[in-house]
Amino acid sequence: MIRLASQDRDAVLKHIYGICGISLDSSKDYLVEGRLGPLVEEHGCPNYGDLILRARADARGVLNRKIIDAITTNETLFFRDATPFDLLRHKIIPELIDARSRGALRPTLRIWSAACSTGQELYSIAMLLKDLLKDTDKYNLKLLGTDISDQAVAQASEGTFGPIEIERGLDETTRRRFFEPHPKGWKIRDEIRAMASFRRLNLFEDFSGLGKFDVIFCRNVAIYFNDSDRQSLFNRLGKSLDRDASLVIGSMETLNGICPQFESKRHLRSVYYRLKTA
After folding, report:
1. Using an 8 Å Cβ cutoff, are 140 and 108 in contact?
2. Contacts of 1 (CB under 8 A, 6+ apart)
3. Measuring CA to CA, how many Å separate 73 from each of 29, 87, 93?
4. Cβ-contact 250, 220 below 8 angstroms
């Protein structure tokens, strides 16, 4: 595989940052080579700098989308880390249902997975809601998944997963209840697929048009951003939270000292955030 030359590094890293906000340094050369190396070879480029020149010259943005698909981390699995889903099941959703049911014939719940990758997180939330609420038709559920990767969003929308993807995070009972066999492996059942919608979104772009949400999952995304961009993202996510809404971030992330408008809440082993009340 072609190595990333030192004279090309700055141009490559600046381009990656410019198209998806991921901030890398020289310690991540191995990641750039592992992710973009196949593209360098596919396009017959003599080096990584040439790949970037071609991407900049591509008016249709096709190569940039390939770079984004390759460089963004799509490591995910169903019910990843478990504790955020326990938090949803035992704390956040019951409280929201209680609050939104007052005077409403069909309570509305809006949940956003802000970096949904190939859909496992949002489908896990959908399965949890189906199990918890039983008759979901009694509720106006709006589940949205967004991701910067076209490739990831396409797979999420299709709802098909290979055997390895299915085996990671799902026991056999859950798999048979919510999935059906498919030539590619397994496909999420229509009743669960219909609960969710997916679209491409760069979190660096304005997303205020999405409206307000009762729960936002944005886990393990900002760890790839610099401090300024991380603060900007969570400030804007805060403006997308409805009353009594909750923000769930990664277990190794914190908003303390970054966004003073949030206060941390704890339930059992889980930490989540809500906007401070006046």
Report:
1. yes
2. 33, 37, 41
3. 15, 25, 28
4. yes
